[in-house]
Structures are given as structure tokens and as C-alpha cells.
# Entry
Amino acid sequence: MIPKHAQSLPKAAKKVWLMYDMIALLVLLAIGLITNIFLKFNGYNPLTIGVNVLFGFILLLIIGNAILIPYRYRFHKYLLQKEAISIYKGFFLRKSETIPLNRIQNVDKIQGPILKIYHLQNVSIVTAAHAFKIATINEDVAQYLRDQLITAARQAREVDTDD
# Structure
């Protein structure tokens, strides 16, 4: 269950996800066209049929992913608490990840060219065992969250070493 006071991603995240899907769609169509040119559009060749069925399946997955963006957006949230940060994802298979602040080793901000257009960043939280990501949050929120996580992690380690 996602807490009511968990932070939602900015609405621009939906546009970014749609752009990612459109880029994947264009790349898939280009690869499909080149493959069919290479196979000489021979519709009777079992290899051509198999490749086109595979491309069709991947195409349906990309389109389905694009259609489900509003639902995915609704369930992507995060919550910074006193002892931990929780990340909530998923609409069919819901996933909740809670990272104790005293386990955080590194916090990075990542911004690719598409995220830069919308002034968004990804925040990567690294522990000794795993890396977690809060995707597509505003630049100023990402900086604030990074600073808060680093400060809280330092304080949590100081409390642990005092015992």
C-alpha cells in the first residue's frame, strides 16, 4: 500500500516516458525495415516470417507500454522518512523498496539529453548490495533529495558509530 503522503513524480515524467517509447518504436521500425531489405522482403521465407513476427510482438509491447503510461505514472512514488527512503513502483506487480539511510553509500544525479529538455533528473541511490533509482524528478527536487539523503546518511552513520 502506497502511503497517501508519498511524493508523486512530476507530470513531465509521462512525456519523457512517451518520448522513450517513441524512440524505441522508431529504432525498431528502422531495424525491421533494414532487416526486411536485407532479406529481400521474401514473405515466403520462414526466416523472414519469424523475424517479422518477432518485430510485431516487440512493436505491440512498445505500444502497450506507451498506452499504460498513465497507470504506471500513478503508482511511481517515493517517500523520504526519518530512518529510510521508500520507493514504490508498478501497477500490475507492485514493488516497494525501502532503503535504510545508514546503508546508503552514494547518491548520484543522472540527466540524459531527453531529461534535460524537461529539466528532470534521475536520482541513483547506491548501497553496498544494490542500486536504486528514483526516475524523472525535477532538477531542484533531485538536488534537495540528494542533499537530504547524504545528510541523513551521515547522521545515521554517526548515531550507529556512537553506540
